[in-house]
Amino acid sequence: MIKKSFRITNESGIHARPATTLVNTAMEFDSVITLQALKREVDFKSIMGVMSLGIYSGTVIEIKCDGEDEVKAMNELTEKIVSLGLGKEI
C-alpha cells in the first residue's frame, strides 16, 4: 500500500467536475483506492462518496492505493490533481 497527502488549494475545493475526473481516473485501476479527508474515508471510485466529503480549499486529503497497479494509480491521480489545479503534494 502507498499513500500521499495533498493540500487542496483550488478556491472551489473539489467540486463536481474535477471530482468526476478523479473518480473516472481511479476507476481505470484494479487497486483499492480510498480518499480520506475531514476525518472520513471513502472509496475513491464512488462519485457520491467523494462528493459527500465536501472538500473545500485548505483541506488536507490523503489518497491510499493498494494493489498490483498501485504505483501507476497513484502517479495518475497525482498528475490529475496537480494538472487540474486542485492542490499540491505535501
Give me the CATH architecture, please: 2-Layer Sandwich
Question: Percent range for helical residues?
Answer: 25-40%
Please mark out the parts with pLDDT under 50 across 5 or more consecutive residues, or reply none: none
Please state the average pLDDT score: 97
Q: Tell me, what's the shape?
A: globular
What's the CATH H-level superfamily name? HPr-like
**Structural class, from secondary structure content?**
alpha+beta
Largest sheet: 5 strands, antiparallel
Tally of structural domains: 1
Helices and strands, in N-to-C order? EHEEHEHE
Strand order of the main beta sheet, please? 3-2-4-1-5
The rounded distance between the terminal residues' Cα atoms is: 18 Å
Query: Which band does the percent of strand residues land in?
Result: 25-35%
Under CATH at level 1, the class stands as Alpha Beta
Total strand segments: 5
Instruction: Tell me the radius of gyration.
Output: 11 Å
CATH topology tier name? Histidine-containing Protein, Chain: A
Q: How many individual helices?
A: 3
Short description:
By secondary structure, the protein is of the alpha+beta class. The protein contains 3 helices and 5 strands, in the order E-H-E-E-H-E-H-E.
Describe the structure.
- Strand 2 (32-37) and strand 3 (40-43) form a beta hairpin.
- Helix 1 runs antiparallel to helix 3 (70-83).
- The protein is an alpha+beta fold and 90 residues long.
- It has a 5-stranded antiparallel beta sheet with strand order 3-2-4-1-5, covered by helices on one side.
- The two termini are 18 Å apart.
- The relative contact order is 0.33.
- It has one domain: HPr-like (Histidine-containing Protein, Chain: A), CATH 3.30.1340.10.
- The protein has helices at residues 16-26, 47-52, 70-83; strands spanning 2-8, 32-37, 40-43, 60-66, 87-89.
